[in-house]
Design a protein that fits this description.
Structural class: mainly alpha
Largest sheet: none
Radius of gyration: 34 Å
Distance between the termini: 107 Å
């Protein structure tokens, strides 16, 4: 009888260890997939098949910097007097024509 109990205990211990190992391996695989997706986002991906290339994080940030610089330049041009064609000059002309510039 003691031998049967020992064998049953061994079976339960091996089963529990197998379940713990299964869960650990599942967690490691899931974590590695997420880290792979993070690396793809950070580093970018080349074009594959019908999927276009995806730029990496730093390339995307550099693109945003270029667009922001273009917007800043445009805003500066429109809000600075330049002889009549900027928005600031046009608002000043409308204010003078309507008498709105006099306090």
């Amino acid at each position: 009888m003691d031998r049967v109990l020992a064998i049953c205990g061994l079976i339960v211990a091996v089963g529990a260890a197998a379940e713990v190992l299964r869960r650990v391996v599942g967690w490691v695989i899931g974590t590695m997939r997420r880290l792979g997706r993070l690396a793809d986002d950070l580093l970018g991906e080349p074009a594959r098949g019908d999927q276009p290339a995806r730029p990496g994080l730093m390339d995307r940030v550099a693109g945003m910097d270029r667009r922001l610089a273009a917007v800043e330049q445009l805003v500066h041009q429109e809000l600075t007097h330049n002889g009549g064609s900027s928005m600031k000059d046009q608002v000043t002309q409308v204010a003078r024509a309507t008498g709105a510039d006099q306090h």
